[in-house]
Amino acid sequence: MRIRSxxxxxxxxxxxxxxxxxxxxxxxxxxxxxxxxxxxxxxGLDFGCSAGGSDGGASAFRRVxxxxxxxxxxxxxPPDAAVPMPCAPSPDLQQPQHRPxxxxxxxLHEVAAQVLLVALRRARANELFRTLxxxxxxxxLDEAWPQLFLLQxxxxxxxxxxxxxHVAASVALxxxxxxxxxxxxxxxxxxxxLALDPIERTLLETILLCRKDCQRELCASGxxxxxxxxxxxxxxxxxxxxxxxxxxxxxxxxxVLPALRAVPHAALHELFLLRxxxxxx
Length: 281
Prior knowledge:
Shape: globular
InterPro entries: NHR-like_dom_sf (IPR035500), Nucl_hrmn_rcpt_lig-bd (IPR000536), Nuclear_hormone_rcpt_NR2 (IPR050274), Nuclear_hrmn_rcpt (IPR001723)
Number of helices: 12
Number of strands: 0
Order of helices and strands: HHHHHHHHHHHH
Structural class: mainly alpha
Mean pLDDT: 73
CATH topology of the domain at 99-275: Retinoid X Receptor
Largest sheet: none
Helix content: 40-55%
CATH class of the domain at 99-275: Mainly Alpha
Organism: Rhipicephalus sanguineus
Radius of gyration: 28 Å
Domain NR LBD: 78-281
Low-confidence stretches: 1-75, 79-101
CATH superfamily of the domain at 99-275: Retinoid X Receptor
Protein name: NR LBD domain-containing protein
Distance between the termini: 78 Å
Region (Disordered): 72-101
């Protein structure tokens, strides 16, 4: 009697395509006021940061060896020889591996660089801000990037506040920098507490970008003031339309602006290593 032997072919390595960049929140289906026109244009400008991955390439099947003594024994030993068993792992290896304190600090710097990059991209893609001359845009971004950075950090998928807390607890900071860290944490916490939707967030960014108090003289200062008034009015009417039972929401959103502007630029440079040459390269 002949026995046919068959082998199961190995499955090829699995491949998972990168996850596409997700779009931001959807725009409400109806908005009758003409002031929502710019808001609808700006609603889709949420640059998310999604990270795709691929499988490790391992096969889905594992080869199982038969439980014969002659297979388990080393080739240079007789079949009846005892197979030495591996020794128990060292107690040091059984302990969980912890990230060193410097690793969390490096992670914070990398996350901050990504947050700043996305914040500047959103500003450059802002439909109202793009109508200003290029020189005015550069002058405004040179002074408004800290507020944009903090607002973006409040909406980052990773909890920046938690990461900052770990780093601040493990790194020796001076009294002045500790005070700045508390200001940063309070500003980010206020932004997170608002739970802004994509349109509210974009209009608030437009208000931050329409600065009339730039140190450099703007060529289109009148246009900046006009855009600022339009953004205030659009945000107020949008919040009144979408949240009629929260009349104080517009005032709460405006109260976030002084908290964002109170954070000193030098503290962001020192804590997150956000170098000036990186900003507009």
